[in-house]
Amino acid sequence: MISARTAATLRLQIMLSACFILWMAFVLILFYAVKEQKPIQDGDMERLRQAAQSFTQPASGLAAADSLLNVIVALAITLAAAVIGFRINPLGYPLDALGSARAEFWLLSIPLGFGVLALITFALSLFAWLTPIAAAALALSLLLLRPQRALLALWRDLNEMRSLRVHPLVALFVALSLALALLASLAPPTAWDALVYHLTIPRRALELGRLAPSGDIIPHENFPLLMSSLYLLAMFLKGDIAAQLLHFTFGLLTLGLIALAAQKIYGRGALAYALLLALALPMLLLLSSWAYNDVALACYTLAAVYAYQRWRDSVNARYVVVSALMSGCALALKYTSFVLPLGIVLMMLYDSRHTLSLKPPLHDVKLLRDVAKFVLLSLLVASAWYIKNFLFTGNPVYPFVFGGTQWDAMRAAWYARGGSGIGFEPLALLTLPIVATLGVRDANFYDGRMGPLVLMLAPLLALNRPRVDRFVFMFLIQFAFWVIGVIGSASLWQTRLLLPALVLLVPPLAAALRNLSRFDLQSFSLRRITTIVVALVLALTFIAQTVSVMAMNPLAYMIGAESREHFLTRDMGDHADALLAINQLPTNARVQFMWEPRSYLAQRSVRADPLLDALPHLVATNGSLDAGVQQMKRDGFTHVLVYETGARFTFDNIRDEFSADDARNLATLERDHMRVVYENGSYRLMELK
User: Fold this and answer.
1) Neighbour-count burial of 676, counting CB atoms closer than 10 A to its CB (0-12 exposed, 13-18 middle, 19+ buried)
2) Which of 110, 192, 371, 397 sits most deeply, having the most CB atoms within 10 A of its CB?
3) Mean pLDDT lowest for which of 19-33, 231-245, 344-358, 533-547?
């Protein structure tokens, strides 16, 4: 006989289960109704056909060896980071512990080692000391750290971790997904921001023999450069593909930290779910295969929050030191990462609330000391890059707040123009998570795809205890900061910027998915139904990833069956052709780009247009177009490259006081002051008369 209370609970359980199933159906239908979210796009078959025809020359053993050498160089840098991290990790190697304790040690040590390598490379390049002799001396200095002990311990621990019990299908899915991402990482870089500044700044430092202000990539060349410093090291030793592989390494570390956090904080039952949910974020592996810094930031963010959580769980003060070091590395990647140490300080204050009334004077002193130690250590780790900015531009956070070199009122207003259009409208703000998931308003749709599972499973967080733990709290802090940015600027409507927040949410979502078994009935399992839906999404995500990598066909380049130039032309079309035309100009040519921020492929002296303001700024600062042309000539420019497609898009979609005269000025410039030397469907390369 069922009691009335039990019957009421059962009815509520059935009602909530039905509501959640309807919610899953709603999200799935809405998500895959968006054309761009379908796993196979209209043009994919043509891209696959072109990829199949990209084997344009016989395979070469030298090319395959070169691809292998890229992997070896990236692996060598990673092992150097592991050796350094083995020595500097405040936690110390856990000799008396096995399994997750040692996995934790390495997953926290290697990012710290990368931070040290970045700082050393940055310092060497700043003083023009990045030479083969300096590199050899650095390699020899590693011998003083007795690397054999660290490497033997790492090898032994990796072998022990191989026995980690994960369902074979989960292991297979993870392995195949990572293999595809690795293949993509071994192709020549073509991603937008990599060609704008992540790789362009290191390449210019190598060409100049030192890291120095050029004024040609404003303002990006003065953003924090931890990842660009690592890319500089890889490019000094080998090339840009080895550099790209370092970001893939951060993807592996991020996945490892997600699994570690799921197991240590939420229980072993959440581990497999956490791995699968992480791989259901298409942007995670996509960005891992590009020479960006978003996955590195996600790695340091997750490591900082995890270390803080471990400090609270174990009362081991060394964990808060690790958290501060990771926060400092995050600050050395992006300005916007200041929200990470800010959020951890807020958690420190919140977590101390229960003891505030015990011994106020002593407690207050200890709390202030802990907060001050955390903040100062974080700032100290990041300080080198901010001091460099102050010396180069007069502003440690260039170009924000204080302006600086080549930054005037017009550029400040230009950079900040264009709100997102949602303002503070309640309905727009409430639907923002749905719109962000669908990607229909994203400024960079392709690299910001988050998949449907985060939105779909978010209601399950109510099953966790506490519902808002430290990982969820930090997610909310970062999400709120992103929302503020979206309200204020169209350029910040990029779901890609949410990646550090999303990886924080994966472990608690995995725990919530495991806890869904509470709703299982004798003849009905809500967890089984949800798992089937998750598996369906994972299958579609894997299909999309497979098609994308096959269409890219990095294998042809890797084995030498396709030249680098042919690959770039096939993948980037008119942009690669235009840059190849620039490379045919006389060696003393200097080219001003307009409406084109990517200059990495250029082998001549060029000034890019990262802000897409080259022409209006030239006219505004010189008073007229004619005066601006004369100024270009005085600055040594001989040619101008105009991205005509980008210019037309700007003229058609952005109408304000800045761009009102741009179309007329561009037409006058092309008619009266230049002659065409090359053009294709998108670009026009012209010589100044």
Assistant:
1) exposed
2) 110
3) 344-358
Helix (H, G, I), strand (E, B) or coil at 592: strand
Q: Which two tokens stand for residue 171?
A: 């292991």
* pLDDT for res 355: 54
What CA–CA distances, in Å, run from 606 to 202, 398, 635?
15, 22, 11
* For the ranges 12-26, 287-301, 361-375, the one whose mean pLDDT is highest: 287-301
List the structure tokens of 41: 């796009």
218 backbone φψ class: left, alpha, beta (φ>0; ψ -120 to 50): beta
- Residue 418 burial class via C-beta count within 10 angstroms: exposed 0-12, middle 13-18, buried 19 and up: middle
Instruction: Compute the average pLDDT of residues 667-686.
Output: 95
pLDDT at 111: 98
What is the per-residue burial (b if ≥16 Cβ within 10 Å, else e) of 421-460? ebeeeeeeeeebeebbbbbebbbbbebbbbbbbbbbbbeb
Q: At CA 368, angle to CA 363 and CA 370, rounded to 5?
A: 95
pTM over 0.85: yes
| Across 162-181, average pLDDT | 89
What is the widest separation between alpha-carbon atoms in the chain? 96
Task: Reply yes or no on whether the pLDDT at 293 is more than 70.
Answer: yes
Query: What angle (nearest 5°) sits at the alpha carbon of residue 581, between those of residues 681 and 205?
Result: 120
616 to 594, 595, 623, 652: CA distances (angstroms): 10, 11, 10, 16
What is the spatial distance between Cα 629 and Cα 673, in angstroms, rounded to a whole number? 8
Which contiguous run of DSSP H or E holds residue 88? helix 61-88
DSSP letter (8 states) at residue 524? B
Note the Cα 644 to chain centre separation in Å. Answer: 29
Exposure letters 4-17 (e unless 16+ CB within 10 A, then b): eeeeeeeeebeeeb
Tell me the pLDDT tens digit for each residue of 205-253.
999 999 998 888 889 999 999 999 999 999 999 999 999 999 999 999 9
Rounded CA separation 246/293 (Å):
10
Q: Which residues contact 115 (CB under 8 A, 6 or more apart)?
A: 226, 325, 328, 329, 332, 381
Quote the tokens at residue 602: 């250029």
**Cα distance between residue 602 and residue 592, in whole Å:** 11
Nearest to 407 by CA among 394, 419, 417: 394
pLDDT surpasses 80 at 170: yes
**What are the tens digits of pLDDT across the range 415-461?**
776 555 566 778 888 899 999 999 988 878 888 899 999 999 999 99
**Interval 627-639 mean pLDDT:** 96
Q: Please state, in angstroms and rounded to a whole number, the distance separating the CA atoms of residues 255 and 284.
A: 9
Q: Which residues are CB-contacts of 630 (< 8 A; sequence separation ≥ 6)?
A: 622
> According to the 3-state scheme, what is the secondary structure of 351-405?
HCHHHCCCCHHHHHHHHHHHHHHHHHHHHHHHHHHHHHHHHHHCCCCCCCCCCEC
Q: Where are the alpha helices (DSSP H) in 470-603?
A: 470-488, 499-515, 526-552, 554-558, 564-572, 574-582
